[in-house]
Amino acid sequence: QVQLVESGGGSVQAGGSLRLSCAAFGYTYSSYSMGWFRQAPGKEREGVAAIDSDGSTTYADSVKGRFTISQDNAKNTLYLQMNSLKPEDTAMYYCAATYFTVRPNPLRGGAYRYWGQGTQVTVSS
Questions:
Q1: Fewest CB within 10 A of the end CB: N or C in the chain?
Q2: pLDDT for residue 78
Q3: What angle (nearest 5°) sits at the alpha carbon of residue 30, between those of residues 24 and 72?
């Protein structure tokens, strides 16, 4: 059974940084996509960043140049380094994974099968 466990959320002032982690248990696929999504109160869920088994990355325009997605295959862990945080980045952040490479849009949440419980990120001005 696949389990995704996020950590690393918290409260930070605008301009600060946070690194989210997502530990994947029971998840071993040679071809896959993993991603980070977020949902703010009263808003729809949006894709933030995704990475494929071939190392290809995709970012939402709103986070390009500020966020970096990466993975440590040895630790079966996905990361999201978030720099220059803004109040509009405030949301619950979710890790997601699936057993194929998501195309054409890796940030389409409906394509992902496995989801974590989320970790809250709050950015104050």
A1: N
A2: 97
A3: 45
